[in-house]
Amino acid sequence: MGKIEIRNLLVSECYTNCYLCKNKETGEGFIVDPGENELKISVNISKMEMKPVAIILTHGHYDHIGAVNALKERYGIKVYVSEAEKELIGDKKMNLSSYFDSPMTIEADEFLKDGQKITLAGINMTFIATPGHTPGSGCYYLEDNEILFSGDTLFHGSRGRTDFPGGSESEIMKSIREKLLKKLKSIMVDWFTYDGEDDDCYLIYNKDWGTLYYPESSFGANAAICDHHFTYGYFMFGAAVLATYDKQFYNDYKDMIELLVRDYADPKEPEDDGNMFCKFRAFDQYSGHSWAGGYADSDSGNNQESASEALFSWVGMYLWGEVSQNSTYIDAGAYGFTTEMEAIEQYWFDYDETNWLGDHPDRVADQAYDYPFQGTGQIYGASMGYGTYFGGQPVYVYGIQWLPISEYLTNYGMNQEKCAKIYQGLVDDTNYAINIEKKLFDQDLANGVSADDSWHNPDKYVTPDNGWQHITWPFLSQTNAQSAYDKFEANVTNVQVEDRANTLWFISAMDQLGYRTNDYMVTGNITGSVYRKDTNGKTVYTAEVWNATDKTQTVAIKDKFGKQIGKANIGAKAFVSFNIDTEKQFELTQTATPTVKATALATGKVTEDVTGKVTFDDTQLVELSCSDANAKIYYTTDGTIPTTESKEYTGKILISSNTTLKAVAVKDGYLDSAYSATVFEIAGDTVSSSANLGLKKKATASSSKGANTADMAFDGTTDTRWQADNEADDEWIQVDLGSVQAVNAVTINWEAAYAAKYEIQVSTDGKEWTTVAKENGMVGEITSSFAATKARYVKMQGVSRGTQYGYSIYEMQVFGAVQAKAPTITPVSGTYKGTQTVTMSTAVKGAEIKYTTDGATPTEDSATYEGPITVDKSVTIKAVTYRKGMLLSDPVQSDIIIEGTISLNKTEATVAIGNKLQLSAITDQSVTFSSDNAGVAKVDANGLVEGVSKGTATITAKAANGQKATCKITVTDPVHITSIEIAPQNLEIKNKTSETLKLTINPSNTTDDTTVTWTSKDEKIATVNDAGTVTAKSEGTTTITAKIGKLEATCEVTVLPITVEEMVADGQFNIGLGKNVVALPNKQNGEGGSESDITDGNFEGKHIATAFATTGTSYTLDLGDAYDSATIDKLVVKYKENNGGDTPVNGYEIQYSTNGVDFETVKKVTGDSVKDACENKNCVDTQDMTGVTGAVRYIRFYYPEAYTWGVQVREIAALSTDKNAKKAELQYCDDPAEVTVKSDKYCQITYTIKAGENQDDYKYMVYLNNNLVGDRVTAGTYTIDNLDAGTYTVKVVSYYNKLTSKGISKEVKVDDGSLKDYINTVRNISKGAKITVDKVYEGEGNQDVSSLTDGIVSDNNGVCVHTEHGAQTATINMDLGENYLISNIEEFLIAFKADNTYAKTYTVEFSADGQNFQEMINVKDAKYKDVMENKIDPSTYNYDTVRYVRVKLNDGSYSWGYQISEVAIMGTDIYMPVEPEGLVVESPTYNTVTVTWTGADNGQTYWVYIDGKVKDMNLASAGTYTYNNIDAGTHIVKVTSRLNGIESKGVTKEVVVANQPTTTPELTTTTKPSETTTQAPTINPSGTTEVTTKPGETTQATTKADETTKSDATQAPTTKSGENTSDIGNGGNTTVAPSASSDINVKVGKTKVTKATKKKRTTKAKISLKKVAGAKGYEVRVSTTKKFKAKKTITKVFKRNKLTFKKLKKNKKYYVQARAFTVINGNKKYGPWSAKKKMKLTK
Question: What distance in Å separates the CA atoms of residue 1309 and residue 1244, rounded to the nearest whole number?
């Protein structure tokens, strides 16, 4: 356990495991589950000399918390528990303490989240939420020590109860499945994956012996083929359990797993199963049991001792059969188990007393044989033996027949008399053996041997009660559970710790249920077990049934004669335990589990039967239902278990953020349903901006060590860091954002000296701080998200350190909150006839609409819109968009006037004496106002109300037609303003930025008019608006004044300069930040970084260059959307350097375009301007673009002249210095009618463009992965050739009259014809062939040349065969073992280790007889690939067959020899499955898909995928298959075929599926054109309504109450005339591919460790990585273990691909792995890990 010492204590009357865990290096420790006995725990703490620092709880039941309060008070320590356990620990009934006559509650100090990492006493651990036993049950995993404290979630061989309050069978199964089974999966996958020469967990197939073995096997499992059924039986059991819940694991490893069961118990004849394994290797059908020996090398024949493990192997086989639905394995497993069980009873325990010598005294042979024992340990072919291979004590002899403890052992208990007799035999045999030991012990003593030295001391002899009790007591419990329980209670401390829980579980189960019986049976599609318990003359039968299927199942209960006496209806995926009524016919029904349906609020898309974890991109309206009539449903949305005390379901539930929904159905006279649990993840729109508000802003810290100052954490690079100088917990670092802004996220990249706990705090003035997030730290990045909060200062406040060192941070980033877009209301303000249906919508995904109907401005607490609203009288509706984390949108308003009706804007209001309040009537009638108590409140003709005296009055508005509306007015005494104050009183603000002043009115409950008048003394310096927001205009000082009545308050404002560099780094100014740039005609390869580096906001970042010495180069910036040019007032280019005094460029042109095709020059920049920038402004060229009008999306910087080293640029930016950039609406032409894309030839894409109507004059632009392909084309069919394998996006954009369309994109996969993916299949006809190499280098590499035909390609040096170092030629000879038709051979394949160890020239010769060879391949000057392939032309071969192959290598990088990992001859597609044909995919009815195809009759199977996920597998034949419950929308259906372990590429079809239609209320108003977006309407005093629409769609219309609105088409926008450029040679008109403004699927490429060297006596390593395009950096990890275990691994981040890794140990062997990453919206996105590379040690 390394530095950890653990002591286990049994506490409470439930024998709960309490653990004391101590860090032996520090003496500190923590307590796990102190469930009573505080004194006992404290005494043991003292004995361990441990200083407790915390209590951690796996859950809150009384038997786990009983001593918490006393220990907490004694030691002054904190208590940690799951956040979902908060309710339970504070409820005496829920925590069960009231049932123990000790009612109590506790309070926790820290509530943990799932996956949260904490460090206690210097020990790292992760909390894993595993609800089910209780709502907040959890486990603590100590990664460095591989220890799991599992509480009552998981026991050895079982799991926790779920019948307590808050328990859930489905939840605990889900927890075990999703959390704890991950560990099992990692172990299994490790065994099924070969990781190279240092791997010791993998399996090998030996063709000669026809068996599997593993390298580090024991007990002769490899050399003698022993114990395969024992070993692989455990594999099969684990694989079956895992595959039950993990279909991906099943799909990935099914074939490997079945090799195991076929190895030890293949039920088929060898010739019927590929001649790989023998039939029933371990099982002797004649003897009826298995043998453990591989080839029976004993004089007495074969043997077996652990009969129970043989039984368990059949259990594993049977379960695998159930998982794979393979009836052969099911039948063989059942046959093997029942047969072997009978044989064990007779041969090992002599059940019938007729099988052993001595059982028949009348026989001569028996008279000479007196076997003194009642059981045996080993059975041989010709004898039996009382003993085991590790000891002869009876406990071991019997115990090895009863392990592992699991339910299968209850088969013994079905015969109570025999089962009891077996256990008594153990007791008798033990006593017999002890009597012998006593005699021998007496002899030792007589011979002078001391009691301690004697081997025969009877006091040390192993008995059923002091050794292996975890096996003997559970067996005893089958016939005498009370006795077993008494033994456990009296001697539990003698049971090894890890087995105590499982022992008690088995005993308790037998005590509760009785014993297994066949008196009654559970039959049906699902089965169960029946137990019998006899108590006080009464017999109770209990059935336990588990329904693992997706629908309700009915089981029949029958007696032993087959007569049905009852039935039970079991819900889907439910576990039920019930008593069997033996007196009369019965029927039991479990209430059906609630089902969940989600409907997208915006689109109406319905998702039926939502379960598990699901992700939606928008807000959902959720409905719960139960198929049982009159059932009530109760639910929770906070992750807790629902009960009848929870909220009752009465209507739809709106879910707009991440939510865990749980529900239970309850019905009188029924069993409660199983719980349904759904985790909703609402992806939604991004709530944070991508700009880092803290980048290069002023930073301060409590202390800094040396050069590691605070500003290093805000410089935009992880090459530097801040480190606190003080090694104290209470250290901090903060940043001044320069102005108050709305922030909602902070990301910190911690160095190794991380904070165990810290807080994120914000402040507007740097004095008063608010904590917005509390975090548990770790090494690496942590993002804290919180509600949008106003802040100028953001601080990391340390709470406790994770190491002994001062805090250290690479980078701290602050992100601003995005404001939600306003919703739309239909109908808009106006007058309408009759009842209206009001609908609201928002473009913000994952948002809600909050609204009011009383004239009040809505907040996030207002009513939520869930569907159309019917209004039958005039009303004012106001609405905002709300999304958690976003700023609330601006409100929109619709005054809907229903003819002949009237409403007031307020129905209740309060006014002070002397104050006035304006009421507004909403009506199309003339109105008169009146008050029923003018002495309290009076009203004038216009609705102006004035308070007269205290009291209440009703104001009535009466329409001309007699309709009325009222408002209740409450009049109060006035409360006058005494003073007003502005904070801060002195403000420093950067130019071009804004900050809102805070005005405090005293007292806050004043009834005076609080209208504020804000003024600025000098508006040239700064302005101020009605909200008190100050906007800096130029440098200087001014005074801001707030005035209410006669009271004034002031603030002195100083405007400081803002630099261009600061604006470029700030997304509020720079709309080009993070946008795409294209260098044309190309970027100079190998020069600087990537295009993304020049829009990252960093003037000191990497540069790039256009093509060297090339005229007409350019950089084109794509803003992602079109903008109004007038709002982009500055363009910035930061050149790399001044080129030794020379101006970088002699002038350039700035060109604008809306479509990326037609560019207009809007400004020419002289060389003098650039020269001045480089001489005086650090090469920052800033151009004023004031006066340029029109729309722009693409900004091109065009350089007509050629420059030797190209145009070298570090940064490009487009600034809106007033932060008022506005998007512009563009006109588009129509897309083509249709675009089809396919790839039916190697390395080629074919696309067809079909023109739409009236597109005769259209041209089309084609982009491949956003790069333009050739010139514009007309409609037709075209090809793109010479492509590598991969997935490509083809986008076709129409072009007409200088307009482009939005484009149609299609994805297509391209195949290059490579067969390397089939190298480890039967298509490799040379796999396993004999091979020789004439010159093998003996000093390095693999000496076993047979690895060259093992079907595995590797770049591992130890795997590759080296030819003689320095020898230019080498020859390889291969014998395929038999003659193959030349027509069945497709290619030759050879894999070299690297590009410096391959042959550039080689020939391949074929021969049929080994004598006459013919050259078939002659390669010269080959370019390196990891796998080099050459196609064979069979028509050039002079013979019919091939058996011998000769390869001659020449002319390459042979200094280190030719390093080869594989040589292969690949067959044609005759070895492949035949693709399905005639695929037809249809949707004949709602939410249903039918798939039909035909196929070959060659034994292949078929797999069906929908949207990339397996829908059906191993279908034996082609035909028509129907799939239900398919979501509405467009789906991709693929059908593949499988044969010989090879899956075909498959054929695909698209299908559109419709939803079951729902009835939607018909709207009474006319909808607008689809392109119209309505802004907030305004009510004019004249009573007319102005509706403003987006440009380019409808014109502004003014509508009187009795008029109809008319929409006119808007003309195309005009642009400023200028110099239009044409093609690249004549001005630079090269088209740039449009890129999507959002939803970009960014993929990060895979890097490779190309070099890793370290001198033995140093601590530094030199590492080189393959460069990945677009990468921002690389994460590199170095480990002394190939599996990169956490405690032996160091991980660091580097910006460059060539690096020095420091702080390694001398003379140590290391492995290296790396992955690239980029940064998207402030978050890192990683590529895949590279292959592991062993570090080369040098002297």
Answer: 10
**Separation of alpha carbons 1024 and 1014, rounded Å:** 6
Question: In whole numbers, what is the pLDDT of the chain averaged over residues?
Answer: 85
Instruction: Give start and end residues of each alpha helix (H) in 928-1082.
Output: 1060-1064
Single-letter residue type at 828: V
Output the CA angle 1449-1450-1451, nearest 5 degrees.
145
Six token digits for residue 79: 């208590």
Strand order in the sheet with 606-607: 606-607, 595-600, 620-625, 653-655
Amino acid making up residue 1059? T
User: Tell me, what's the pLDDT at 1537?
Assistant: 92
Q: What is the DSSP string of 1342-1362?
A: ---GGGGGSS-----TTTSEE
Measuring CA to CA, how many Å separate 1721 from each of 945, 1075, 1096, 1120?
A: 52, 11, 11, 15
The band of 1259, judged by pLDDT with boundaries at 50, 70 and 90, is very high
Whole-number Å distance between alpha carbons of 62 and 65: 5
Decide if pLDDT at 1561 tops 50.
Answer: no
- What's the whole-number mean pLDDT along residues 1407-1414? 95
Cα gap 495→1234, rounded to integer Å? 74
Per-residue confidence (pLDDT) for residue 1608, from 0 to 100: 32
Contact between 764 and 792 under an 8 Å Cβ cutoff? The reply is yes
Peptide bond just before 131 cis, omega within 30 deg: no
Q: Which pLDDT value is given to residue 1142?
A: 56
Evaluate if residue 1021 carries a pLDDT over 70.
yes
Q: What is the DSSP letter of 179?
A: I
Q: Please give the radius of gyration of the chain, using alpha carbons only, rounded to the nearest integer.
A: 40
- Statement: residue 1580 has pLDDT above 70: no
Say how far apart CA 1519 and CA 1477 lie, in whole Å: 11
% of the chain surpassing 90 pLDDT? 46
d(CA 520, CA 581): 11
SS (H, E, C) 301-328: CCEECCHHHHHHHHHHHHHHHHHHCCHH
350 CB contacts (<8 Å, ≥6 apart)?
356, 359, 374, 375
Tell me if 40 sits within 8 A of 3, measured CB to CB.
no
pLDDT of residue 173: 54
Q: Please list, in sequence order, all residues whose beta carbon lies within 8 angstroms of the beta carbon of residue 237, skipping any fewer than 6 positions away.
A: 312, 315, 316, 319
Cβ neighbours for 250, distance < 8 A, ≥ 6 positions apart: 243, 323, 324
Stated pTM of the model:
0.47
For 1635, residues 6+ apart whose C-beta sits below 8 A from its C-beta are 1076, 1118, 1120, 1266
User: What residues pair up with 1489 in beta bridges, in sequence order?
Assistant: 1523
